[in-house]
Each structure stands twice: as C-alpha cells, then as structure tokens.
Amino acid sequence: xxxxxxxxxxxxxxxxxxxxxxxxxxxxxxxxxxxxxxxxxxxxxxxxxxxxxxxxxxxxxxxxxxxxxxxxxxxxxxxxxxxxxxxxxxxxxxxxxxxxxxxxxxxxxxxxxxxxxxxxxxxxxxxxxxxxxxxxxxxxxxxxxxxxxxxxxxxxxxxxxxxxxxxxxxxxxxxxxxxxxxxxxxxxxxxxxxxxxxxxxxxxxxxxxxxxxxxxxxxxxxxxxxxxxxxxxxxxxxxxxxxxxxxxxxxxxxxxxxxxxxxxxxxxxxxxxxxxxxxxxxxxxxxxxxxxxxxxxxxxxxxxxxxxxxxxxxxxxxxxxxxxxxxxxxxxxxxxxxxxxxxxxxxxxxxxxxxxxxxxxxxxxxxxxxxxxxxxxx
Length: 378
Ligand code: MG
Known about the structure:
With 378 residues, the protein is α/β, with parallel strands linked by helices. It has helices at 30-40, 55-61, 77-88, 108-117, 162-171, 181-187, 207-216, 259-272, 277-280, 294-306, 326-340, 358-361, and strands at residues 3-9, 24-25, 28-29, 43-50, 68-72, 95-100, 123-129, 134-138, 141-146, 152-154, 158-161, 192-196, 219-234, 237-240, 243-246, 249-252, 310-319, 347-352, 365-377. The strands form five sheets. Strands 1, 4, 5, 6, 7, 10, 11 and 12 form an eight-stranded mixed beta sheet that branches.
C-alpha cells in the first residue's frame, strides 16, 4: 500500500534535556532512525516537521537519504501537524502516517499493522495494554487507584486518510491539544482502530531514556588485533602505553614511538575494519613528527564512537628484555583506562621476554601486540 508520512520533530523536548531528535543514538541521529524505517517500508513522501531554522540540522541528520523534505513547525503539535499536512497535499484518500521523531525504534511490522488497520476505520492507533497497576498520587502519598482494565498506552505512527485528518485537525478549536491526531479524529466523530503497538516504540522523554535505548540496540561483537615494533636508539626515556619510563635508550620513530599505543590503535581500527594507523596518520606527514601517540588512540576511539560502537576490553602485550615493565604496569593500565574511558578490569597490560631470542631478545627493538573487543550497532 502506498502511503505518506509526517514525522514531528519540532519539539524543544525540554524534559529530555535539549533537542533530542538530533542526538546520536547507536551512532546516528534519533530522527534518522524513524525516517529510515518509513522509507524502507515504502513511504513515497516523508515530510519532517522541524522548528524554524532547523532545516540544516535535518539535512545533516538525514544526509544521503532520498524521499523526504521538511516543513516548518508551529508553537503546538497540532499546528506542526497542520503545517506538515499542508506541505504534503492530497490525494484525499492517501494513507498518511503521523509519527513522533522521539520514537526511534520504528519497525516495519508496526507500519504494516496501522496501514492494515485503516481498512474500515477512520484511523489506526498502535497501542499497548497497561500492565502496571495505576494509582493517583497527592503530595507524595497514594490518594486512590485507577482501574486499568480497558486502558491503553497510545503510540505512533498513527494512520489516517489524508482528507479525514485535515478536516479533523481543522475542526479542533481548543487552544491546547490534541495530544495526538487520533484524539482529533475521534473528537470529529471518527472511529479509530486499536492495533498492536510495540514495546520498543518507547518515547524518549527523559535523559535516562537514552541510556536504556542504547541498550536496546542490537550489537555485533568484533575483535581486532594490532602489532607494532620499534628499534632502540640513544636516549634517556621511553614511552610505553602512554607512560614515560626512564631508561638508558629510547625507541626510534616518527612520533613518540609508543609501540604499545600503536598496536592498540591498530587493534581498535582493525575491529572496525577501518584501515590502520598509517592510513589515518601517514608517517610522511610532518605534523605527526614527535606527536604523542595518545592522539592516535583517541582518534580511533572517536571513530568507533561515531559509528555508535563501544569498546569492551583491551589487552596489550609488550615484548622486550628491558626495561622491566612490571613496576609500571599499573600506571599503564590506569592511563589506558583513562584514555579509553574503560573500567580498570577491562584494561590489561602484560609483558614478556623472548628468552634472549630474536630482535627483541638481542635488544635491537621492542614489540607490542594488542587485542581489542568492540561492539558495533547492527
Ligand atoms: Mg609504531
């Protein structure tokens, strides 16, 4: 069934602490989740209603998607929807879905249910039965109970025929409300069908809702590994895992030659399939000469965050005869935990020798190996 959609993203959302529709959730803006779902389900025209001046924010949030445009919101939700309907236009019998941008986990099955629910009805409303018992409160104490039988929690997207919704919105003359479009259609005498909602269609209302929403995103676990080696040369200290250790030699390299951080950076990039440290920080580029390798590591972590990913744990092994790593191991772990925003027990630094064999055993150089486990959305 062909249909159009209006996504209401004009709210100021003060309860969620800012403009939540632009916030990142699982690596993409909240608004984008809904628009992608509507387009994937076959919406032929999507009008995103945004606050005046927010057009470029919408363009950023929806870059690369086709089949959407914006309309400017009004002071009230009702006004915003009216503007969206005006931008959309007919035909009169075209199904129109009205959806809150603050409900990102829109599933194709819900879209299909509300469209099917329009058959023989003036509207279709996804809703969930109330499971908790309900109380009235007064001054912090219970003052009564409310019978929950027959009560439903209304969600979006709500489906209507275009003309029916335009007329119902026009007929709403109260200065406040309606809370949603189904209310307007009911008030105008329409019959709105209840269809099964979806618990995942939670509305992001309070700041803590974002933390819960992040946990609801399906993630894949990926592992990456990294290896690095640098040659010993004259010097008085060496950088290893972000810690400067006094030593009678130093490691030679274009940057600070911190092989531990380089191996770890490659492990994180590897887990994302995002190239290697040399791709992101070419040794031919003079700006990285003598650079602190902290920057390489934090760059990899930022790229992971931009994809909506998160680190689970890291494990680094330093391979050398000297200096002794053990006295510095705790400081290295604490430094890495700080750089990576990980708890200490998710950060391991180990050391080994190669029993005087090979280039590390002969003291020609130091090697480092690292593993990183990450979780990525999808
Ligand atoms: Mg290196």
